[in-house]
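LAB NOTEBOOK - FOLDING QUEUE
OPERATOR: T.R.
BATCH SIZE: 2
PURPOSE: Compare the predicted structure-token outputs for two unrelated chains run back to back under identical settings.
PRIORITY: normal
REVIEWER: second-year student, initials M.K.

ITEM 1
FIELD SEQUENCE / FIELD STRUCTURE:
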Amino acid sequence: VCKPAGPTSTQIVTRVRRIFSTYSEQRDLAAGHLGTLDPQAAGVLPIAIGKATRLIPLLEDRRKCYALTLVLGRSTTTQDALGESVESAPVPENILQRLEEVLPSFCGRIDQIPPMFSALKRGGRPLYELARAGVSVEREARPIERQPDLAGEGIEEVTLLGQQHAARIGRQNGQHARGAALVAERHIQ
């Protein structure tokens, strides 16, 4: 499904399940998705329906690629474009050189601390719900592996758009594009 910005991944799955249940003989179809997209993210959301949901564990560890825009020099309460600005700083003039220097550090085995605004659950609640309620919890760094020699891995492309930078990031299950953006910003300042 091409998920538009706005609804959550779970809301999209619910809609798809309802549509398929309406036209099928089964009223209690199983349905699930292969990775949560942020509500403000638009893009392909792979969904499995019926017996195909049994294949989800075989597919969810596959690599994915995200296109995103980074706005350097601005920090927000939610670490995305929807949050309120809490800090701003001038973007260095040699930003492209600094980005080129830091990009190789995003390949290979690295430890990544998941951002509070993620779908990971703590005590049965997604971290983003806790974050919106003003609660911050300790998160352990998780080992992730990025292999630049495989298609769709690593940071493939960075384009200068004034103070915004477009990037395509290949990632595997458990990696967070938002977290990668935060790490990149810290390394180049």
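ITEM 2
FIELD SEQUENCE / FIELD STRUCTURE:
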Amino acid sequence: IHAPIRDGAAKAKVERSFRTIKDTWLNGFDPSEVSSLQDLNRLLADYVRMRNNSVNRNTGETPMERYSKHIDRIRFSKSREWLDECFMNRIIRKVNNDSTVSIDSVMYDVPMQFIRSKIEIRYLPDDMKNAYILHQGKSYPIRRTNKLENSRTKREKLPAIDYSLNGGLLQATAWLLVEEYVLICFCHNYLNAGQAKCLAEFYEKRLSTGTAAAVPLFVKI
């Protein structure tokens, strides 16, 4: 369905059709024959119909006859909805604290459960009303932000994340923060070298035993 940008060889048959239309119809087109876009579309449809029913000198068949002969090889789309989804734009956005994301400089509201999370948004540029978030196989609709309504929306505090489920990520993160705290204190002459070493060893011991009570200490700095 998709092809790389500026790679005509990847879609040669389509490009050749465009060239044929340009050389045999568009270049000799008389603008005075049409007065509206509907007239232009009708003339193009008549031309395409004529080409599809004209015998090709190389195959000895009309394009329509050749197409019908191999109709069993044609794969049809499951539905119009499925086909639209195949051509949807897909982007990754991080949700702001006010539960919004920006798409082409326009703000959209998303479900509050995705605050501060990265999400995948699928949409058609000319049909943003049907844009949605795809998360774990489920679709969540988004809508254009009403700034006044958004400013008055109360949001509950999000539950704490249990980083221990990620193989002790909390312990590793906390230890990095302890090191940063000790370094800050040492640089500002709050601690001498011996005191900084003792403090670091103290918190390393507490963190190794699963105690993360040191976190509030350096978060306040």
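REVIEWER COMMENT (ITEM 2): The first strand starts at residue 89 and ends at 94.
FOLLOW-UP: none requested
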